[in-house]
Amino acid sequence: MNRADRPLRLALLGCGSVGSQVVRLLREQADDLTARVGAPLELVGVAVRRPELQRDAEVPAGLLTTDAEGLVSRGDVDVVIEVIGGIEPARSLILTALESGASVVTANKALLAEDGSTLFAAAEKAQRDLYFEAAVAGAIPIVRPLRESLAGDRVRRVLGIVNGTTNFILDKMDTHGSGFAEVLEEAQDLGYAEADPTADVEGYDAAAKAAILASLAFHTRVTAADVYREGISEVSASDVASARDMGSVVKLLAICELRDDPQGPAVSARVHPAMIPRTHPLASVREAFNAVFVETEAAGELMFYGPGAGGSPTASAVLGDLVTVARNRLDDVRGAGESTYAQAEVLPMGQTMTRYHVALDVDDRAGVLAAVAHAFAEHDVSIQTVRQEGHGDDAQLVVVSHRATDAALSATVESLRTMDFVHDVTSVMRVEGDGE
Amino acid sequence: MNRADRPLRLALLGCGSVGSQVVRLLREQADDLTARVGAPLELVGVAVRRPELQRDAEVPAGLLTTDAEGLVSRGDVDVVIEVIGGIEPARSLILTALESGASVVTANKALLAEDGSTLFAAAEKAQRDLYFEAAVAGAIPIVRPLRESLAGDRVRRVLGIVNGTTNFILDKMDTHGSGFAEVLEEAQDLGYAEADPTADVEGYDAAAKAAILASLAFHTRVTAADVYREGISEVSASDVASARDMGSVVKLLAICELRDDPQGPAVSARVHPAMIPRTHPLASVREAFNAVFVETEAAGELMFYGPGAGGSPTASAVLGDLVTVARNRLDDVRGAGESTYAQAEVLPMGQTMTRYHVALDVDDRAGVLAAVAHAFAEHDVSIQTVRQEGHGDDAQLVVVSHRATDAALSATVESLRTMDFVHDVTSVMRVEGDGE
Questions:
Q1: Pick from A149, A281, A321: CB nearest B144
Q2: What is the pTM of this model?
Q3: For labelling, which of A168, B32, B98, B384 has a CA lying 20 to 30 Å from the CA of B4?
Q4: Measured between CA atoms, how close is B132 to chain A, in angstroms?
């Protein structure tokens, strides 16, 4: 079974919650990993900023080093595992590792979404692997299915719940009827949200993953800067209640779409809260779980579900990549690299087709409904349903549109705001996942 | 981008519902496939039994042949796609194809489950790929995630809804309260069940998939003969109602488990109807959809969901494999082969740990509950809950056990049947998925 007597030499960059679990699994599963790779795996160095820190995993003292640059450039490392996160020094270290002949496994979504092309080009030049299953949706296998399993199919749309913190918050808002601020505090107390929750709550984390998913799904380079982004801090208890009235639930979705325009394929990637029907498979994704729903031409609708974060699940994804990359090293081959042959146009948000749910406090008098309908028609937006609720001072109109460009829908809402019989636009939210 | 000027030559065995869709996708996605593989794919022959039949796909007339043996042995074919199904002639044709230097992509679950080892040995000897994503759960990527994504983790349990026909029937029994026979007829009218539904309804199809899943998950050779099998033809409307009373739903599950026994790891694979809680992710798998729920040590709980059958979804899985296998041919390498290094003991059903839900019509008198509890205790089975329902002639006891060997549970039920105060054992069903 063993294909090489020489052990494969690994270097680990970062030993926090993920890195510690990587070290633990490398030790605990050593025999299985050896059998699956075809050679033993030997950890030759672990780069950390503060070697004096107490860690979850026992790292043999001689392996710890603060000299990450020295570790990746020593030239005898077969695979570098990067779990530092962030742009620098991660980028420089990965580039040096590739130049020095190592293959790389990384969990770094931010770096891949911002500057993946530099990394992939370096991997191509060095003829080494760059694998990143752990960068999207933690332990859930989604990178490999998109890159390989669905390589004979055509992906049309990806809808992902790819941020556990925001899903936990929205789920609690839905089940308890609480407001955003209150639930955020609870999430922070429970360790589901960080002290500074911006990256999660404002959708930056999900946007990075959307860029990676769109690139893989559509064989086109999509970066974080291409992704429209809205977080959940403006989602109110009344938005959530409004969704409930429609038989829907509010989720923060990463949405990647392919559209066949007359001049060729065009893609879009966006992150925003949206109402989805409770019957949609994504609606049952509770607490901090993640799930990615994929619509393809031949396979139809697929969903991948699991824990989207956490040291141990993320380490599982890292080690899965490690086994493939290590096998490739033994065989002296490379796996699939970046695929951008389609070079589809990346659409700005305004040109993306969406649907809106709009709730308005209005005067309770004849002609209001006609005037609201007219505002939609003026922007070429057709209406799916209008529902009037309450009377007198509590009169409310709830309008759900058909699909239109986001620009037209947004302009419609702006013009509604200026109408004198509209007291307030109490909720504006996009609607997804109901097959419209 | 093109890595080869020479097209890769494909032969297709079978041109029914799956084969026709393979032909269609090869034509419609030709440009994408060429870009993803790095060379054009050329279909050089399609073996069918009756060339005169009308088919869904337009197969160029010159390609059709009845000489399958001649097609696979001609020696200039790079990849053979087998979608005939069944044991023979599929096995002989695959073996000849490998001997003649072709890699093979197959959707043949029955053959893999019965005699996979012969095929894998032939692939190893020929140094060619044998890929089979389409053999389990249609379009749902599950073979590749188990073989590769989770290769750095340890799978403990797989629970799969892997047969669409039976899931459709059980779902309808649950939602409409109808009996098995009535729903089977409806499923046959709608094309969800075949005229002879035995392979689906009696669990043979699911058992083949369970053998393949267990082999992959536990790196151990498990064949169809190792899989305990019970179908759904005995599931009654009252079983389904009983499940509902417990907040559960009845599903036909393929269950693969790993157990760490003192003398080493032991695995089991079985197919039977089971009650699972409605809160379990598998409970929401409706109609003819499939899903595979995987529990691992590091990643935790994952689920893969999608269409488990159908020409187009199955063809998607076939083509995903084809892209990988074709790329490997260009690079002159092989992907992961069979992995059986763990060689775990395969346990018979009697030694498998399960839980039972038992409903009994009993005399409504003092001492009955104690006697029933005594029958369980005598077989070393401890009871989780007992519920008495009804009075007098309608008195019923519902007992749910803790985990015990299936042999002990089965013996307990046999001894209950002999007791004079037990008028009838109205429902016996295993209980899964509630974390016990």
A1: A149
A2: 0.95
A3: B98
A4: 11
Q: Which CATH superfamily is domain A8-136+311-331 in?
A: NAD(P)-binding Rossmann-like Domain (3.40.50.720)
- The DSSP call for residue A127 is T
List residues of B with catalytic annotation: 209
Three-state DSSP class for A368? helix
CATH number of B149-306: 3.30.360.10
Asked if A400 and A383 count as a contact pair (C-beta separation under 8 A), the reply is yes
Decide: A78 and A102 in contact? Cβ < 8 Å: yes
Residues of A tagged active-site: 209
In this prediction, the answer to ipTM > 0.90 reads yes
Closest B-chain CA to A147: B320
Q: How far apart are CA A399 and CA A428, in angstroms?
A: 10
Query: Which residue in the set A139, A312, A327 is minimally distant from B302, CB to CB?
Result: A139
List of long-range contacts for B260-267, beta carbons under 8 Å, 24+ apart: B261/B345, B263/B345, B264/B344, B264/B345, B265/B218, B265/B342, B265/B344, B265/B345, B266/B344, B266/B345, B266/B346, B266/B347, B266/B351, B267/B214, B267/B218, B267/B220, B267/B222, B267/B344, B267/B345, B267/B346, B267/B347
Per-residue pLDDT of chain B (436 residues; tens, 9 = 90+): 345 668 999 999 999 999 999 999 999 999 999 999 999 999 999 999 988 888 777 888 789 999 999 999 999 999 999 999 999 999 999 999 999 999 999 999 999 999 999 999 999 999 999 999 999 998 899 999 999 999 999 999 999 999 999 999 999 999 999 999 999 999 999 989 999 999 999 999 999 999 999 999 999 999 999 999 999 999 999 999 999 998 999 999 999 999 999 999 999 999 999 999 999 999 999 999 999 999 999 999 999 999 988 999 999 999 999 999 999 999 889 988 899 999 999 999 999 999 999 999 999 888 899 999 999 999 999 999 998 888 888 889 999 999 999 999 999 999 999 999 999 999 999 999 987 6
CATH number for the domain whose boundaries are A143-308: 3.30.360.10
Note the helical H segments in A290-358.
311-331
**Which listed CATH number (1.10.10.10, 3.30.450.40, 1.10.3210.10, 3.40.50.720) goes with B8-138+311-331?**
3.40.50.720
**Shortest Cα distance from B145 to chain A (angstroms)?**
6
Nearest residue in B to A151, CA atom: B320
State whether A305 and B303 contact (CB < 8 Å). Answer: yes
Q: Name A103's bridge partners.
A: A79
**Phi, psi (degrees; rounded to nearest 5) at B416:** -65, -40
Chain A hits for B141, Cβ within 8 Å? 141, 144-145, 149-150, 302
Residues from chain B contacting residue A21 (CB–CB below 8 Å): 298
Distance from CA of A283 to the nearest CA of B (A): 11
